[in-house]
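**Polypeptide and fold**
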Amino acid sequence: MTYKYLLFDLGGVLVDLDFKRSIEAFIELGCPPELFQGEFWSAGIFKEVDRGTISVEAFYDEIRRIGHLPHVSNDDIMKAWNQIIAGVPERVFKALIKAREQGPIYLLSNVGALHWDLCHQTIMRYQGEDALNWFEKTFASFELHLLKPEAAIYRHVIQETGLRPEDILFIDDRQENLDAAAAEGFQVLLSTDHDWIDHLGFGQL
């Protein structure tokens, strides 16, 4: 696999996610369990959050409405929502350091403002540094008002970086995102459980 640049997804590739933990936190607040069945996480309000088309205050209000939680505070909703973000293994940080030594790295993520702030403040901090600053450029969906796997978000990356897509290896944990990127000329790698580290040789260096 020959590439010049690495483009990483955030959740599921660098950051561990735990939807069950968040569901349990919302149920503890009083949400009916059946609310979380089906495509709940990938539809409606949560897509709006990741697209950045709804304010944080409006998000809290909508969660209170659909979750039957009229008296729950913004802070409690934020804490339950942030339970999705489980953490980052140290080996991921070490692999990113090695990846940077080989060339610029980039980030492209479907992420909302609350989770983005959490990653900056705590989750992506390593040895006193904000590891999100290690990336040459970051592309957060809520800032772009675009979502993977929309073609426009990959075209935006190319336009903003000035790189050729065939020189970029995009690493994501969802096949539909990779298929859309490949259609725009990117090299792609499906990764789960941080297996990109060994696949690209960063676990042995």
In short: The chain has ten helices and nine strands.
